[in-house]
TrEMBL record:
<dbReference type="Pfam" id="PF07859">
    <property type="entry name" value="Abhydrolase_3"/>
</dbReference>
<dbReference type="GO" id="GO:0005829">
    <property type="term" value="C:cytosol"/>
</dbReference>
<dbReference type="GO" id="GO:0004771">
    <property type="term" value="F:sterol ester esterase activity"/>
</dbReference>
<feature type="region of interest" description="Disordered">
    <location>
        <begin position="25"/>
        <end position="54"/>
    </location>
</feature>
<dbReference type="GO" id="GO:0004806">
    <property type="term" value="F:triacylglycerol lipase activity"/>
</dbReference>
<feature type="signal peptide">
    <location>
        <begin position="1"/>
        <end position="23"/>
    </location>
</feature>
<dbReference type="InterPro" id="IPR013094">
    <property type="entry name" value="AB_hydrolase_3"/>
</dbReference>
<dbReference type="GO" id="GO:0019433">
    <property type="term" value="P:triglyceride catabolic process"/>
</dbReference>
<keyword id="KW-0732">Signal</keyword>
<dbReference type="InterPro" id="IPR029058">
    <property type="entry name" value="AB_hydrolase_fold"/>
</dbReference>
<protein>
    <submittedName>
        <fullName>Alpha/beta hydrolase</fullName>
    </submittedName>
</protein>
<keyword id="KW-0378">Hydrolase</keyword>
<feature type="domain" description="Alpha/beta hydrolase fold-3">
    <location>
        <begin position="142"/>
        <end position="347"/>
    </location>
</feature>
<feature type="compositionally biased region" description="Low complexity">
    <location>
        <begin position="28"/>
        <end position="44"/>
    </location>
</feature>
Length: 372
């Protein structure tokens, strides 16, 4: 475990490609025309076998990452306890190893990072703050929430997304290490997420950020948290984010949607894992209907403009579509884009997967427009 943590901490820049070179002007409704991808990177990734049964449309770069992840031989997450599950390899490990094996060059980071511990109800949480190296500010501010089903993962695993957005948007990013389940049950992560947002609002000026230009971004469980932060800010009458980017968010509790059925056995996320995450975070399954978990049941009127990003080969695909529809019905301005041939967790893989590079550029464009 220590060796794996050292590997992650010393190679963060490997997975955090500077996406400032992305083709941020893409207008495609899918990721299919991402023309700015480094051809040497994409050409070097060739799958070893046929497309998996659960993902016949998978793109070759995405398949190469999944094949590498499978090659580690880890036990299925849903068969483990939370402590052991956190020792499993992650998609980030697969990306890092493929980058190294294929001698793919990595741009130098365009941001500085520092750590900050803050007090929250019942304890402390850690924040990682990314600040652009160029420019004097005040910069826009993004509060970012990582994925992992409220149970696994950390700031290192999702470093590429947070750093990439900081570089592409030219923003300060505060990445939040909310407390995980089952050690910390629902709604601890939700409360931590909002506490971090409150801290960011109060400390924006000292972060070289503009307190009038704050957005929230999250992936998967983090997408759920980001949306909840906007809801809580509205309800508590503090500054509502100017925009929210929700990347394949957990948005409802029904695991019989079409995408759950089609991709029940997908990787790196499947239906069994979602059941496991739910059982670990919630005290009773009745809580799955709580509007904080089932966002489609929440009061959504008055939320900020929203960007929703989904992956085709993902049990949570329909969650994102359903939430986009509910937000639109509530009068919220919504922009959404689905990326074909990629799986859950693709967003942070910009250095290898063209669709990820396009998705990050799209998210950055949406944020920059909201900050104007």
């Amino acid at each position: 475990m220590k060796n794996r943590l050292l590997k992650i901490s010393t190679a963060l820049c490997v997975v955090a490609i500077s996406i400032s070179a992305c083709n941020s002007g893409t207008k495609s409704t899918t990721a299919g025309d991402s023309t700015s991808m480094d051809s040497t990177a994409s050409a070097s990734l060739k799958p070893a076998g046929p497309a998996p049964e659960w993902g016949k449309t998978i793109k070759p770069e995405m398949q190469s990452v999944i094949e590498k992840l499978v090659s580690y031989g880890d036990k299925p997450l849903e068969t483990l306890n939370a402590v052991d599950a956190r020792r499993n390899h992650t998609p980030t490990d697969a990306v890092m190893d493929l980058v190294a094996a294929n001698n793919i060059s990595v741009p130098a980071p365009m941001v500085d990072t520092i750590g900050q511990d803050i007090d929250v109800a019942g304890g402390k949480i850690h924040l990682r703050i990314y600040t652009p190296k160029s420019g004097k500010g005040p910069f826009p501010l993004i509060v970012y929430y990582h994925g992992g089903g409220f149970v696994i993962a950390n700031l290192d695993v999702y470093n590429a997304s947070a750093q990439g957005l900081a570089e592409q948007v030219g923003a300060v990013v505060v990445s939040v290490a909310y407390r995980l389940a089952p050690e910390n049950k629902f709604p601890t992560a939700h409360n931590d997420a909002f506490a971090a947002y409150e801290w960011a609002v109060k400390n924006a000026v000292s972060l070289k950020a503009d307190p009038a230009k704050i957005a929230v971004v999250g992936e998967s469980a983090g997408g759920n948290l980001a949306a909840n932060v906007s809801i809580m800010a509205r309800d508590k009458n503090i500054m509502v984010p100017v925009h929210q980017v929700l990347v394949y968010p957990i948005a409802q509790a029904n695991m019989d949607t079409e995408s759950y059925k089609m991709y029940a056995d997908a990787k790196p996320l499947n239906k069994a894992m979602m059941t496991w995450f739910t059982e670990k975070y919630l005290t009773t399954m009745v809580e799955a209907q709580n509007p904080k978990i089932s966002l489609v049941n929440a009061k959504l009127k008055g939320l900020p403009s929203t960007t929703i990003i989904t992956a085709e080969i993902d049990p949570l695909h329909d969650d994102g579509v359903m939430l986009a529809n509910k937000l639109s019905e509530a009068g919220v301005k919504v922009s959404s884009r689905n990326y074909e041939g990629v799986t859950h967790e693709f967003f942070g893989m910009a250095i290898l997967v063209p669709e990820a590079k396009a998705a990050q550029a799209y998210a950055a464009d949406q944020l920059k427009a909201a900050f104007k």
